[in-house]
Design brief:
The complex is a heterodimer of chains A (about 325) and B (about 200). Chain A is an alpha+beta fold and about 325 residues long. Chain A has one domain (about 50-305): Sulfite Oxidase, Chain A, domain 2, CATH 3.90.420. Helix content of chain A is about 20%, strand content about 20%. Chain A has helices at about 10-15, 15-20, 25-40, 70-75, 90-95, 120, 150-155, 195, 250-255, 295-300, and strands at about 55-60, 105-110, 115, 125-135, 140-150, 165-170, 190-195, 205-210, 210, 220-225, 235-245, 280, 290. In chain A, strands 1, 4, 5, 8, 9, 10, 12 and 13 form an 8-stranded mixed beta sheet that branches. Chain A has a 5-stranded mixed beta sheet with strand order 3-2-11-6-7. The longest helix of chain A is centred in the N-terminal third of the chain and has 16 residues, at about 25-40. Chain A is globular and about 45 Å long. Chain A starts with 10 loop residues before the first helix and ends in a 13-residue tail after the last helix. Chain B has about 200 residues and is mostly helical. Helices cover about 85% and strands about 0% of the residues of chain B. Chain B is globular. Chain B starts with a helix and ends with a helix. Classes of the chains: A alpha+beta (about 325), B mainly alpha (about 200).
Chain lengths: ~325, ~200
């Protein structure tokens, strides 16, 4: 009986160097896995976060009548890789995020570049937008955001004729343990074509469920682009840059064959590793069909006329 | 010892049942169940594969009594994992399942891993051991190695970006497999000596 070894390879050569260098953390992961596997985990400790109500919210356009996801689920199931790749962890970990003082630098191809304090952004007229949110992983939520259209912010800086794209950059703080890992190219960056950014569906959100934005959902201010996969809606934004060239985006840089620049929700274009035809709405048992442009085709399909959406995924 | 192991191996299932009962499985319960049953399939299969090396290092030979149970529980959690997918993820849409198996490499290897485990679970009894003869039975049960390798690959291919956890499992599996080499060599040397005599 011969069991052939996989050649003569030292364990350190099998393991990618980046992982090998983190072996202590790996041990912690294993330890936590063994301990947490039997006793409960983050899953079992989901809690309603403390909430600060926002006043003066008016009902906005485009709101869906789909039943809303519970506040508890929307605040305990979050992709926020700056904190953790586990979706149940940001709820607790993001408490550390420093949301004051906060400024958003708006620059690039604009007539009046500005550094805008969060207080001024919070003073903008607020409206509620109840949007569907479809994650590229195959689940979705319905979230009542509070915020204002991105075009309002653009008017504050007067984009020039050269502004063809907009880049959104997320904060990078020492409160974020996830950025010590090269999972993505930090800081997190996302981008839109200027016409996508200026579309009335695109909003800068400062809250949800009538409350100040919880940290794990991208406090104090984030982007929401409801017809694109969730990762396009960058959280905790500190810099907005109007550019003449298409900016690089975090997930596209990480895996260009899996995450395109556009990343419009499209049931007909599968992720290379899984189908995008259906989704699990959080709180529902059966899966539901995914809609073209996440159900916003009527509003946004015209942005892409003549484009091959299979190629420009 | 066997009773303790049996109860311990049921705890992950018990945890899911209790958390499910309390509605504490989080925002995406199906995902949690899929993940948990998949994880425990691997953990138990890894344990089954660890028994021989650990026995040789520690000299604690009674451990072999637990191997069958570990393997059977691995198959048990594997079937729960598959059932979760077939039932709660695809709702018995066999066309969609067939397409998934053909089109999605991570599902292909996952299903393959489980298919390899089924004959092992089915022939785990003493009767089958006798019927196949020790050598034949051992040869058949070597399918546990490809099953484990495919399971590890299944995990590596399904994650979105963070490979930490799958690589931990793959690393431990590699260690377990490599640690068998000296054992196998020694056994072969012993057998060779017997033949020469």
């Amino acid at each position: 009986m011969i069991i052939r070894p996989p050649a003569d390879i030292a364990p350190s050569e099998i393991t990618p160097l980046s992982v090998h260098a983190r072996r202590r953390d790996l041990m912690r992961v294993v330890g936590a896995g063994i301990a947490g596997g039997l006793l409960g985990s983050g899953v079992a400790t989901a809690a309603e976060p403390a909430a600060t109500p926002l006043d003066g919210i008016v009902k906005g356009r485009f709101s869906t009548t789909d039943p809303q996801t519970s506040f508890k689920d929307a605040t305990n199931y979050n992709n926020f890789y700056e904190f953790s790749t586990d979706k149940y962890s940001p709820a607790g970990m993001a408490e550390r995020l420093r949301v004051r003082p906060w400024e958003v630098v708006v620059e690039g191809e604009v007539a009046r570049p500005r550094t805008i304090g969060i207080e001024e952004l919070l003073r903008q007229p607020r409206e509620e937008r109840i949007y569907r949110m479809r994650c590229v992983e195959g689940w979705s939520m319905v979230i009542p955001w509070v915020g204002f259209e991105f075009s309002r912010l653009a008017r504050m800086v007067e984009p020039t004729a050269n502004a063809r794209f907009v880049e959104f950059i997320t904060a990078r703080q020492d409160t974020m343990p996830g950025i010590n890992y090269g999972i993505l190219d930090w800081p997190y960056a996302e981008g839109l074509r200027i016409d996508e950014a200026m579309h009335p569906l695109t909003i800068m959100a400062i809250g949800m469920y009538g409350q100040v934005m919880p940290n794990q959902n991208g406090a104090p201010i984030r982007l929401v682009v409801p017809w694109k996969y969730g990762f396009k809606s960058a959280k905790s934004i500190v810099r907005i840059r109007f550019t003449s060239k298409q900016p690089g985006t975090a997930w596209n840089k990480a895996a260009a064959n899996e995450y395109g620049f556009y990343s419009n929700v499209n049931p007909e274009v599968d992720h290379p590793r899984w189908s995008q035809a259906t989704e699990r709405r959080i709180g529902e048992f059966r899966k539901r069909p995914t809609l073209m442009f996440n159900g916003y085709a009527e509003q946004v399909a015209s942005l892409y006329t003549g484009m091959d959406l299979r190629k420009n995924f | 010892m066997k009773v303790v192991a049996f109860v311990a191996a049921l705890l992950p299932l018990l945890r899911l049942v209790v958390l499910g009962w309390l509605d504490e499985l989080g925002a995406n319960p199906i995902e949690v169940i899929t993940r948990s049953t998949g994880t425990w399939t691997m953990v138990l299969l890894w344990i089954a594969l660890a028994i021989t090396p650990v026995r040789h290092v520690t000299g604690w030979h009674q451990l072999v009594d637990l191997r069958r149970m570990a393997g059977l529980f691995a198959a048990f959690y594997g079937l729960l994992h598959l059932m979760t997918y077939v039932w709660f993820d695809q709702f018995f849409d066999w066309m969609a399942i067939g397409r998934d198996i053909l089109k999605r490499p991570f599902i292909t290897v996952g299903v393959a891993a489980l298919l390899l485990m089924i004959p092992l679970a089915a022939t785990s009894t003493d009767r089958w051991q006798r019927r196949l003869g020790t050598r034949g039975w051992l040869r058949l049960h070597r399918l546990a190695y490809p099953a484990a390798l495919l399971a590890a690959l299944h995990f590596v291919w399904l994650v979105k970006r963070d490979l930490t956890e799958p690589l931990v499992y793959a690393g431990i599996l590699a260690l377990l497999l490599v640690s068998r080499v000296p054992i196998a060599l020694r056994r072969r040397a012993r057998r060779a000596k017997v033949v020469r005599r």
